[in-house]
Amino acid sequence: MVITDRATAAVRAVNALTARWAAAADRGTVFSAAGVWPLLAFLADGAGGAARAELEGAVGVPAGQAAFAARELLGVMGSVPGLDSALGLWTDRAMELQEAWLSRLPAESHGVLTTDLDASQEALDAWAAKRTDGLVDRMPVTLTEDARMVLATAFALRTDWPRPFTEVMRRPDTGPWQGRTLLGLHRRSVRPDRVGVTSTPEGHVTALRVPGDNGIDVHLLLGEDRMAPGQVLRAGIGVLEGTLAVTGGGRLPHGHVGPGLHVEQQPSLTPEPVTLDVTTVAFEVAADHDLLALHGLFGLTTARDDRQGHFPGISAAPLAIGAAGQSAVAEFGALGFRAAAVAAMMPVAAGGLPQYRYETTLVRAEFDRPFAFLAVHRETRLVLAAGWVTDPKPHPARGPR
Q1: For residue 208, what pLDDT is reported?
Q2: Residue 373 confidence (pLDDT) above 80
Q3: 5-79+83-157+285-329: which CATH topology?
Q4: Residue 363 and residue 44: Cα distance in Å, rounded?
Q5: Predicted local distance difference test score (pLDDT) of residue 270
Q6: C-beta separation of 154 from 138 below 8 A
């Protein structure tokens, strides 16, 4: 994949928007700045006056270049294995668009809104469901009589772990999940540097990279108890962007070295000098976001004012933003970053008691209280989805909660 300078700038702008959006996270959530950013970029391209300046600030690239950057970003996303993405535009039959603006959108993205609101809404919802493999079953905006246009993006992300986790029963001894019987996930590997610790002004964060088989990784991030979700997520983006240094698991001293992270000496059957032992939890997170509730973050403050038009570059008809939203889901399981049903057999050693001939340094990472995650395209470091886990899956064999 050839990544242009413009695409690289777009990736950085998306990740910066992710970091700013993370500051608003205060509960279990999932969101995708990569899904919202192209919409803001195309709107910025067609906006005028104060709305153009505000959208330009939110997008992070000059408004005159925003549409071209959005197309390149969508091109990058379209070339990522395991990621299906699309952009859709629907307009009222009587509405005339500026040809220059329309020409900068991806081809074959334009549909029509009919006078039958229910039928049009059903068509929009069906598009959302089809483009997300049914994970999101409806459009996050509801058509009204004064609707003239809908601009939307959708994507479905899938990755499998080359080495699946083993499902285990997990009962945390402390913290918010104490006493719950959770669907835990466990795995050992000989790659200790997939986990590390970074230091931020707000506290230390343990970062674990779980690589997928198609160039998409999921980063799990555990901060100190006092850290807010947004602080932990921003630390993860800092690690991703290289602005925060990380000490890898193979270079950590013995003892408690970071949130949920311990290094200790253990007997071993194999001569591997360092082993990584990970225990986390399966989770499903879903969230709906009203983007106009955070209009300042997304540069929509002026654009939502319906007393006048703000998008002369899109149409001569006066337009304002009447609704803006996002619905997102994330599922992390034993097989990959998606919902999964697993059947497993556990082979055991035969031939008598094992003979421990070696010692290994064990780097043990435990995610047993609320933590953050980032789904990242490995090559470009584009954050595709981000979130905060507060309510992991219960174990199927759990007793009373």
Answers
A1: 96
A2: yes
A3: Antithrombin; Chain I, domain 2 (3.30.497)
A4: 48
A5: 56
A6: no
Amino acid at the residue 290: D
> Considering the chain, what percentage of its residues have pLDDT values greater than 90?
58
Measured in whole angstroms, the distance separating CA 214 from the mean position of its chain's CA atoms is 16
Q: Where are the domains of the chain?
A: 5-79+83-157+285-329, 166-282+357-389
Residue type, 247: T
Cβ neighbours, 10 Å, residue 85? 22
**Architecture in CATH for domain 166-282+357-389:** Roll (2.30)
Q: Is 148 exposed, middle or buried (0-12, 13-18, 19+ CB in 10 A)?
A: middle
DSSP secondary structure letters along 63-79: HHHHHHHHHHHHHHHHT
pLDDT digits (tens, 9 = 90+) for 289-304: 889 899 999 999 999 8
pTM equals 0.90
Q: What share of the chain in percent tops pLDDT 70?
A: 91
Q: What is the distance between the terminal CA atoms of the chain, rounded to a whole angstrom?
A: 48
Q: Are 114 and 120 in contact (CB under 8 A)?
A: yes
Are 371 and 390 contacting, i.e. CB atoms less than 8 angstroms apart?
no
Query: Token pair for residue 157?
Result: 């992300």
5-79+83-157+285-329 and 166-282+357-389: identical CATH topology? no
Radius of gyration from C-alpha coordinates of the chain: 23
Residue-level pLDDT at 352? 41
Cβ atoms 204, 236 nearer than 8 A: no
